[in-house]
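Quick start: load a record and inspect it. Here is DUF6538 domain-containing protein:
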Amino acid sequence: MSLMRRGSAFCIRRRVPKRFAAVKTRSEIWLNLHTDSETRANVEAPLIWVEQIAARETRLASDTEDAGMRFQAATELAQRRGYRYLTVEKVAALPRAELLERIETVDAQRSEPREAAALLGGVAEPNWARLAEGWAREARFFAGLLTLSFATIGIYPSS
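Running the structure step on this input writes:
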């Protein structure tokens, strides 16, 4: 990690790991540590970088067709920004001050579309009943496959 002084404040400069190419187009990132103390910068830099990596992991997880994983990633992104994930209907019904606070957070952080969706309720909640039905169907299939495999080798499970 490269610690540098820009003006009166310290910054860190790091190469963005290749696995995040899908969610981050730049090859390196500069983060202002908002301190002129080198000692404090040395303490804060690793913590801030770990937070950045965690946020990118969540963004990467949200880049999926799986509705459950996308919803979970949006929930984690909202929590990482200090908010509870709410559907767009619930965000629209928030008191004006809370709604404006969320909008200003999106604007101030120049959020990417995935982050904005997480804070403003833009990720549809998955149909958990349909997902559970699919999981149950898969479990029955594998149970039948296992029973058939046991029967093939002469082991019959008791009912």
